Amino acid sequence: MEWVHVMKRCSIKLACAISALVCLPIHAFATSLPQRIVSLNLCTDQLVADIVSRERLIGVSKLAADPSLSSMSRQFSGVKLLNGTTEEVLNLNPDLVIVSDTTSAATVELLRQVGLRVLIVPMASSFESLRANIRAIAVAVGEANVGEALILDFDDRLRSARSTVASRPTALAYQVNSLVSGPDSLLDEILDAAGYHNLARDISTGRTGRVPLEALVTHPPDLLVFANAPGDYKTVLADNLRHPALMYVKSRRPSIVLPMPYWLCATPRIADAVEMLASMKSSSFANVHRAP
Fold first, then answer.
1. What is the C-alpha to C-alpha distance for residues 271 and 156, in angstroms, rounded to an integer?
2. Which strands sit side by side in the sheet containing 80-82, from one edge to the other?
3. What is the mean pLDDT of the chain?
4. pLDDT 10s digits, 241-271
5. In this model, does residue 89 exceed pLDDT 90?
6. Which of 18, 110, 154, 213 is 20 to 30 Å from 221 by CA-CA measure?
7. Which class is domain 166-284?
8. CATH number of 26-156
9. DSSP string, 276-288
């Protein structure tokens, strides 16, 4: 019956946190410029940090401090790292909670029931949805001008990268378990912005699919793109990245490691990924015109 007592203790703690929040004066919720912002998603963590001063951001997801996933892991020093529980959020007494559309509906509903302002930000899978998310967050935190400046800088960097070389080689982002990124994915748009033709458009359907290693060896792209070095993975699902056949293809074709934090989330760091790929194209494919 120990678990029953554990559940009771958790319920009591949550009830106390809710009671404390409900008893806050009404002006604690009335400010038009949120000063105690909590984000519960890796992608929104980074967008909020781009827009507001650090003292206004009091809590982010634990993933935000993971350098293998977050492009801003070093910038969250002093910010509370959260598992995403309602109790944690309530204990921080935030005046704005930013979540993604993948956050539990029950969590969102409970936060709203106790009077918290909650902004739901859709997961972005394109540059346009990234711009929309930046604007939505910037308006919600009272920093619309900062948001527009971020978008302007992002678009300027994309234009500069696209103009480097006119060639259009093929590229394939090849990942663990033979996964590739097809049409309507961030990686697809990143490759296009850097001036490549995503070979996954020709050999798979949907946002993600698998390309058998045999097919990759038979019809390799001009450029192989990896999220991490093969040695970074400790799972058998990454055996495809260590296979001798792939090593053979890599020995005969250019390849690049595009760090996952640059493209896992739709943030302005996507421009870094585009610039890396464009630089590779400039140095290795100046005379390639294979793709339409």
1. 9
2. 80-82, 57-61, 37-39, 96-100, 118-121
3. 83
4. 767 777 777 778 899 999 989 999 999 999 9
5. yes
6. 154
7. alpha beta
8. 3.40.50.1980
9. HHHHHHHHH-TT-
